[in-house]
Amino acid sequence: MMQSQQMLGKSASIPVLQRINHQKSDLKDRQFWQNQLGHIAKINQHYFEITEVSKEGIVSLVNRENNQEKYLLPLEVNPAVVALFEDKTSEVSEGEKIRLTTTDKDRNIANNDRGIIKRIDDDKLHIELNGKLVTYQPQKEYADRHLDYTYAITSYASQGAS
């Protein structure tokens, strides 16, 4: 999208995770989970695809890192450690400004930090964030999919950006 408006470099289509807004009480509801089939649940630091919800309300999940199955009961879910996301695809280009949509403790980068894509190599994005060059691999790492365009910031996200 930005490619035609500015002189940007090489581009790539990357998978990104877009947060699904919900109330804490939604996570206790069987029907809510039924509506999330195919979406991604981040539980603690692990990413799971929501694959099935039984009549009894048991939610079946598949770990996207190792393909192991896990089951959870909505009434026992701790909302503090669960976030839901939808898989999307974004087109990004070298020179484009992007922002992180979650905190990356390993790289010492905060939610809503903004950066510039300096280089795209195969499945790697080299992004200048906070004065340092960091490498993201959204094709391989679910944790590296928390990226969005800086011009697509929501009013909710902008409240924490100042």
Describe it:
The protein has 162 residues and is mainly beta. The chain folds into 2 domains: 82 residues, Roll (SH3 type barrels); 63 residues, SH3 type barrels (Roll). The protein is 6% helix and 42% strand. Strand 2 and strand 3 form a beta hairpin. The N terminus is likely disordered.
Summed up, what is this model?
By secondary structure, the chain is mainly beta.
Rounded to the nearest angstrom, the radius of gyration is 17 Å
Q: Which sequence of SSEs, written as H and E, runs from N to C?
A: EHEEEEEEEEEEH
Helix proportion? under 10%
Mean pLDDT: 90
Strand order of the largest sheet: 1-6-2-3-4-5
How many individual domains?
A: 2
Give the biggest sheet: 6 strands, antiparallel
Task: Find the CATH topology of the largest domain.
Answer: SH3 type barrels
Number of helices: 2
CATH class of the largest domain: Mainly Beta
Shape: elongated
Ends apart, CA distance between termini = 26 Å
Topology, number of strands = 11
Sheet-strand content, in percent, reads 35-45%
Q: What is the CATH architecture descriptor of the largest domain?
A: Roll
User: Which secondary-structure class do the elements indicate?
Assistant: mainly beta
Low-confidence stretches: 1-5
